[in-house]
C-alpha cells in the first residue's frame, strides 16, 4: 500500500523520506531478520516496524479526523497517563539516525549530542511523520542541550510546550514536579476540550501500568540461561513501546512472553548457554539506533538488560491506583515518576543501585556503559560508576560514540576485547 498521499499532506519530503525508508528496511533485514532462532512472536514487531511510517501514521491521522489529538514528546518524564486521560495519543519523537545533521547544525553547535541533532535533522529534513502529525510537542528542561534546543524548536513546530523538571531529589523538587504535572494537565485539557477526571485518569493508569507490566515480564524472562531472546530484539520492543497503540502492544508482548516461557522450559535460547551476558546502561537508544547491541551480539555475547530510558529506566515503576480524588491520583503519579533515576539529577546515587540490582537479577557478567558523545550527564556519571562497579567485582566497559558508522571497527575491537575479559 502506498502512503505517499498521506506523507505529502503531512508535508514530508517524499524523495528524502523514500530513501530513508529504504535504508531503514535494508538495515532491519540485515540486523534483525538474519538472527537465528528468533521467537515467532517477533513477527508482530517485524510488522510494526514495516508499518512504522505507514499504518501507524494512518491510524494517527484517522484518529485526528475523528477529533482526537496527538501529543509528541522526547522524555520519559512526560506522563503518558495524562495524555491518555484526555483521549489523546502519545508518541515518542526521539530518533536514532544521522539524518539532516548538516541542517541541524545551522541551529545547534556541532558538539551537541546526536539524539538532539537527530530530532532537529528529521524535522528540518521533513522526514518524520510523527513530528508532523503531532498537534502538541512537549519538550522538557532536563539536560542543557535539550532545554536550550527547545528555544529554537519552538519556531520550527506548530505548538511547543515546555515542561520544567527538577534537578535535585528534594521536597522542593517533588513539589515542582507536581506543579508541572498540574500545569500540563490544564494544557492538555485546553488542547482537547476534555476534562481529566478520576475515572478517565484511573483507566489511563491501568492501560499504562499493563504496558509496563508486559515489558517487566519480558525483562524477568531474560534472566534465564540460555537467553530466550536477543538484546537486539528486546531493545526494539522497548523502542516500539513509545509509538505503538498501547493495548495492542501489551497484548502482543504478553503473547511473546508466553512463547518465551515455553522456550525457557525447553532450554531453547538465542545464544549459547556460556555466552557472556552483558547489561547495557546509559543514554537512550531511539529507533533506528541498533549499533551497539548489533556489535555485541555479532561478537558472541548476549545483552540481557537495558538500564536505559528505552529500557527499564523508562518503564520500571508502576503508578499505584489509590485514593478517590484527582489530587490523590496525581500524587500517585508524581510518586511513580519521581523514582526515575535520570543522570540530569544531582546527585543521582539511586541509578548505581539500579545497575547493581539489574546485574544481579539478570545474571550479567559485565556492564557496558553507553555514552553519546557530548552527553555530559551520562558520560560524567559513567566515570563515577565505573570505579564503583569495578570495585564491586563487576567488569565495566565505557563506550563513547555517536550515530555514525565511522567508529564501527574501533568499537568492535574494544567490545571483542571486553567479551574476552568476561569469558576469563
Ligand atoms: S529521563 S535520559 S529521556 S532526559 S543523551 S539529550 S541527556 S545530552 S535523553 Fe533523557 Fe528524559 Fe533523562 Fe531519559 Fe541530553 Fe544526554 Fe543527549 Fe539525553
Give a structural overview.
The protein has 424 residues and is an alpha/beta fold. It has a domain at 201-318 and 326-332 and 341-423: Rossmann fold. It is built from 19 helices and 8 strands. The chain has helices at 4-10, 14-33, 42-50, 55-65, 80-85, 101-104, 114-124, 129-133, 144-153, 171-192, 198-221, 231-240, 246-266, 291-298, 312-315, 326-338, 349-361, 376-391, 408-423; strands at 70-73, 89-92, 136-140, 160-163, 277-282, 302-307, 366-372, 396-401. It has a 4-stranded parallel beta sheet, with helices on both faces. Strands 6-5-7-8 form a 4-stranded parallel beta sheet, sandwiched between helices. Helix 9 links the parallel strand 3 and strand 4. Helix 11 (198-221) runs parallel beside helix 13 and helix 14 (291-298) packs across helix 19 (408-423). The longest helix has 24 residues, at 198-221. The N and C termini lie far apart (52 Å). The model has no long low-confidence stretch (mean pLDDT 97). The chain binds Double cubane cluster. Double cubane cluster (BJ8) is lined by residues 75-77, 113, 115-116, 142-143, 145-146, 283-284, 309, 340, 342, 344, 372, 375, 377-378.
Amino acid at each position: 500500500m502506498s502512503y505517499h498521499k498521506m506523507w505529502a499532506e503531512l508535508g514530508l519530503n517524499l524523495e528524502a523520506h523514500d530513501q530513508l525508508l529504504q535504508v531503514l528496511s535494508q538495515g532491519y533485514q540485515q540486523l534483525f531478520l538474519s538472527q537465528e532462532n528468533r521467537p515467532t512472536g517477533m513477527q508482530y514487531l517485524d510488522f510494526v516496524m514495516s508499518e512504522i511510517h505507514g499504518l501507524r501514521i494512518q491510524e494517527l491521522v484517522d484518529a485526528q479526523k475523528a477529533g482526537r489529538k496527538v501529543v509528541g514528546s522526547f522524555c520519559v518524564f512526560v506522563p503518558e497517563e495524562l495524555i491518555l486521560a484526555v483521549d489523546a495519543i502519545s508518541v515518542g519523537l526521539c530518533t536514532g539516525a544521522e539524518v539532516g545533521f548538516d541542517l541541524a547544525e545551522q541551529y545547534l553547535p556541532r558538539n551537541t549530542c546526536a539524539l538532539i541533532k537527530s530530532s532537529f535533522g528529521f524535522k528540518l529534513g521533513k522526514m518524520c511523520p510523527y513530528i508532523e502529525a503531532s498537534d502538541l510537542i512537549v519538550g522538557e528542561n532536563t539536560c542543557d542541550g535539550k532545554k536550550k534546543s527547545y528555544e529554537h524548536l519552538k519556531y520550527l513546530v506548530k505548538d511547543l510546550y515546555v515542561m520544567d523538571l527538577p534537578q535535585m531529589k528534594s521536597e522542593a523538587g517533588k513539589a515542582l514536579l507536581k506543579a508541572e504535572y498540574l500545569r500540563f494537565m490544564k494544557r492538555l485539557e485546553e488542547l482537547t476540550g476534555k476534562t481529566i477526571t478520576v475515572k478517565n485518569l484511573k483507566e489511563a493508569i491501568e492501560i499504562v501500568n499493563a504496558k509496563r507490566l508486559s515489558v517487566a515480564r519480558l525483562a524477568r524472562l531474560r534472566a534465564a540461561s540460555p537467553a530466550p531472546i536477543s538484546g537486539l530484539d528486546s531493545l526494539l520492543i522497548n523502542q516500539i513501546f513509545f509509538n505503538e497503540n498501547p493495548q495492542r502492544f501489551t497484548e502482543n508482548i504478553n503473547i511473546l512472553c508466553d512463547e518465551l516461557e515455553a522456550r525457557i522450559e525447553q532450554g531453547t535460547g538465542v545464544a549459547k548457554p556460556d555466552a557472556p551476558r552483558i547489561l547495557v546502561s546509559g543514554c537512550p537508544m531511539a529507533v533506528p539506533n541498533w549499533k551497539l547491541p548489533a556489535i555485541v551480539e555479532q561478537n558472541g555475547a548476549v545483552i540481557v538488560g537495558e538500564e536505559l530510558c528505552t529500557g527499564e529506566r523508562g518503564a520500571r515503576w508502576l503508578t499505584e491506583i489509590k485514593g478517590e480524588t484527582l489530587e490523590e491520583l496525581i500524587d500517585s503519579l508524581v510518586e511513580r515518576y519521581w523514582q526515575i533515576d535520570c543522570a540530569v539529577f544531582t546527585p543521582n546515587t539511586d541509578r548505581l543501585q539500579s545497575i547493581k540490582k539489574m546485574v544481579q537479577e539478570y545474571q550479567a557478567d559485565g556492564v557496558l556503559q553507553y555514552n553519546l558523545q557530548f552527553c555530559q550527564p551520562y558520560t560524567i556519571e559513567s566515570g563515577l560508576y565505573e570505579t564503583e562497579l569495578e570495585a564491586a567485582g563487576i567488569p565495566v566497559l565505557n563506550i563513547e560514540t555517536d550515530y555514525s558508522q565511522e567508529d564501527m571497527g574501533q568499537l568492535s575491537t574494544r567490545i571483542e576485547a571486553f567479551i574476552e575479559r568476561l569469558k576469563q
